[in-house]
Design a protein that fits this description.
With 220 residues, the protein is an alpha+beta fold. The chain has two domains: 120 residues, no CATH class; 93 residues, no CATH class. The protein contains four helices and twelve strands, in the order αβαβββββαββαββββ. A hairpin with a 4-residue loop joins strand 3 and strand 4. Helix 1 runs antiparallel to helix 4. The longest helix is centred in the middle third of the chain and has 26 residues. 29% of the residues are buried.
Length: 220
């Protein structure tokens, strides 16, 4: 990652990679940017934290729902796996990186001006894992992953440019109310500050609403 991209990532956690023209029918992006970030995750010791990739509309932030998707090299073509929420399910494949593969996506809505969104999220973190120890571990993994993705230049030499991670953001299916001073909940979203004494505490939090996702709580 060059210095400019590292700084941009450090401030946003969401970034856009080079694609075709703004109003092109197809969204095209190089595989190498995915591979570099997947490599960081695979080299790390992360039980919960992962990097996910989504295609979103620049103007609205809504998902750019996918009609078709392909992974193309000079000699081969593969089907692209993706979800109905426009999350790209990409392989971690060194050969695709060496072969200069590109991702070609045709959105359902041709009017969408699509961009690539990188999101640090929890892997398989359900309500049953909602206890203080697990949340402490996840918070630490998010912090490590954010630092690793930002690269040596930023994390070691210009650490003041890194965003501050204040804790976790929990998104539920419905409105929740959790009686703990570490939780600041509004409707279905809770911002959680993670105290140091949670490391060895297995106290669980009970909620009736399904937990949809957990992401870092980032401030700039």
């Amino acid at each position: 990652m060059n210095n400019f991209k590292a700084i941009f990532f450090a401030f946003t956690v969401i970034f856009t990679l080079l694609s075709t023209g703004a109003h092109s029918k197809e969204f095209v992006v190089s595989y190498d940017g995915f591979y570099d970030r997947l490599k960081v995750v695979n080299k790390g010791d992360f039980e919960f934290a992962q990097v996910n990739f989504y295609i979103t509309d620049i103007a609205t932030g809504d998902a750019c729902l996918i009609k078709t998707g392909r992974i193309i090299t000079e000699r081969q073509e593969f089907a692209l796996n993706y979800t109905d929420q426009a999350q790209l399910l990409l392989p971690y494949d060194q050969q695709l990186d060496k072969d200069k593969a590109v991702i070609v996506i045709e959105p359902i809505n041709e009017q969408h001006d699509c961009q690539l969104k990188l999101q640090i999220e929890a892997r398989e973190f359900a309500n049953g894992d909602l206890n203080k120890h697990q949340m402490f571990q996840l918070n630490a993994e998010f912090d490590d992953l954010l630092s690793d993705l930002s690269g040596f230049f930023i994390s070691k030499l210009m650490s003041f440019l890194l965003p501050e991670q204040k804790g976790l953001v929990l998104t539920f299916a419905q409105t929740v109310n959790i009686d703990d001073k570490a939780f600041n909940c509004k409707d279905a979203v809770c911002h959680v500050a993670i105290p140091g004494d949670w490391e060895d505490d297995n106290t669980a939090f009970t909620t009736t609403s399904p937990l949809l996702k957990v992401t870092p709580w980032i401030t700039k």
